[in-house]
């Protein structure tokens, strides 16, 4: 037992010495690596700076001397968007809108109602009025029917002219200078009437207003409040299933009146007029995709009051 204890006591200093020796070796190896890396870094920077020290004239040999003559200037000038699109090998889509089915339907319904109303009252109240009426009543009905007929024609004609796509068409590569044309394609409103396609230079197109409108960014508190409001509305709709048809009918009726207001006042529509061409095209900015949110088209075409 004593021999075992003596052997254990004698073995502990040897293991401790081995551990200290191993740590010292690792420390020396780390110091050697650091010295090697520092020497490599010094040599790298010395190689970078040595040519400048021995040959200081070569450092500024490639520098371009400033000049005031624009013909000798090496800086490239500003390239407009029209030149960039004109030199592209393929056409570029600038605008694409969804089909205005609701707008066209509302316009035809309101237009046909107004025209039918005017024809009915002109026949029964103006041409063949009932007996015993005063003379000014048919004249009053004639004025009312004229206003209703004009309103019906206005809604009917505003169903046409919606733009489907606007594409930038570059000129052939052989032509010099290369010009840019914009191809405007309309929607097919009637089944047997082909789509109207017009290709004109971009300088001949005039817009009524800018297409790009900066979006209002909501604060985090406003965004959370809007999400909570939508969640409460969704839960309310799920809990009241019996009144769902009436709420849907109320929504579509309200949307129909909003479309009527939009087509009457042209709110949310940008009018497009082509010089030396009859007719006005319409761009629906609320239901369309535009390249760079409309900034490209704003740079290519002119505004009415510019």
How do the SSEs run, as a string of H and E?
HHEHHEEEEHHEEEHE
Shape: flat
**DSSP E strands, number:** 9
Strand ordering within the main sheet: 4-3-2-1-8
Low-confidence stretches: 1-13, 47-75
Label the structural class: alpha+beta
Q: Biggest sheet, in brief?
A: 5 strands, antiparallel
Beta-strand fraction estimate? 5-15%
Q: What is the helix tally?
A: 7
- Rg value: 40 Å
Alpha carbon gap, first and last residue: 110 Å
Chain-averaged pLDDT: 78
**Assembly classification:** single chain
Helical fraction: 40-55%
What labels describe this entry?
single chain, 306 residues, alpha+beta, five-stranded antiparallel sheet, four-stranded mixed sheet, 7 helices, 9 strands, flat, disordered N terminus
What does this structure look like?
The protein is an alpha+beta fold. It has 7 helices and 9 strands. Strands 4-3-2-1-8 form a 5-stranded antiparallel β-sheet. A hairpin with a 5-residue loop joins strand 6 (269-274) and strand 7 (280-284). Helix 3 (101-127) crosses helix 6. It is flat and about 125 Å long.
Topology:
Elements (H helix, E strand, L loop, with lengths): L1 H53 L26 H6 L5 E6 L3 H27 L8 H22 L5 E8 L9 E7 L10 E5 L3 E3 L12 H20 L4 H22 L3 E6 L5 E5 L3 E3 L4 H6 L1 E2 L3
Parallel strand pairs: 5-9
Antiparallel strand pairs: 1-2, 1-8, 2-3, 3-4, 5-6, 6-7
Helix pairs in contact: 3-4, 3-6
